[in-house]
Amino acid sequence: MIIAPSILTADFCEIGKLIDESINAGINWIHLDIMDGNWVVNKTITFGPAVINSIRKRIGNEVMLDCHLMITNAEETWQQFANAGVDLIIVHIEAVKNMGALINEITNAGKKVGIVFNPDTPVEDVLPYLEQIDLVLVMSVVPGKGGQSFMPEVENKIRTLKEKINIQKSNGGKKVKIMIDGGIKAHNISLVKEWGVDVSVIGSGLINDKGTIKENLTEIQNALAN
Ligand code: DX5
Ligand code: ZN
Fold first, then answer.
1. Of 4, 68, 119, 181, which sits most exposed with the smallest number of CB within 10 A?
2. Could you give the number of structural domains in the chain?
3. How far is residue 220's CA from residue 226's CA, in Å, rounded to a whole number?
4. What DSSP designation does 183 have?
């Protein structure tokens, strides 16, 4: 299981230090939550390519950076995130008009591409694209803010995706990773691993929990080992 910290609930004056601390604790994947003040229900604005560019310069090229685009116009702006240095661009199926064309554009630019879908979007909407993408992100909260409660009803979606991806892999197709985002903590990480999740995004459970990032990560890894 890969742990990808989300910096959404961080003190934004401290993000450089928090990312350093995460990498020193063994993290090699960072999840960047981009909201444009329009697309998510609570109209939050987070940060954009300039901040991502600074993060990339600070951490070098070894750490994976993904951007989770909770924005209205990903089809017009994804290139800015690519240029800022992300490795993987994750777009919401509910927000994109021509997903097939967008997947091709991102792939042709040499970036990995992921599709994310909301708790009330059926998994069947994503299945037609599984052969063309690198990752599928299952939202286990309604996107918009950190620190929300995990929605266990995503289990069936994850099990369906795992089954389809395993069949695809055994036929020589793409090894699509399953990522989960929202409400993941030490108490539920083993559960989602058992369902078939490969990458867990963790925001408040790493950054705003009782201990340091290192201590919180150790607690999560211990939960995974038991
Ligand atoms: C929600 C974001 C998440 C979230 C994760 O809109 O996509 O990445 O902030 O934070 P926690 O782990 O606190 O749910
Ligand atoms: Zn996210």
1. 119
2. 1
3. 10
4. S
209 — pLDDT class (breaks 50, 70, 90): confident
Range of the domain at 141: 2-225
Q: What is the CATH number of the domain that holds 80?
A: 3.20.20.70
Beta bridge partners of 201: 4, 181
Which residue among 33, 66, 134, 198 is the active-site one?
33
Q: Is ligand 1 within 6 A of the CB of residue 34?
A: no
Give the pLDDT confidence of 65-85 residue by residue, as tens digits.
999 999 999 999 999 999 999
Long-range contacts, stretch 53-60, CB < 8 angstroms, 24+ apart: 53/84, 53/85, 54/16, 55/15, 55/16, 55/19, 55/30, 55/85, 56/84, 56/85, 56/86, 57/85, 58/16, 58/19, 58/20, 59/19, 59/23, 59/30
Task: Tell me how far the alpha carbon of residue 31 lies from the centroid of ligand 2, in angstroms.
Answer: 7
Q: What is the pLDDT of residue 13?
A: 96
Whether 144 lines ligand 1, by a CB cut-off of 6 Å, is yes
Determine contact, residues 91/74, Cβ cutoff 8 Å: yes
Report pLDDT for 226: 80
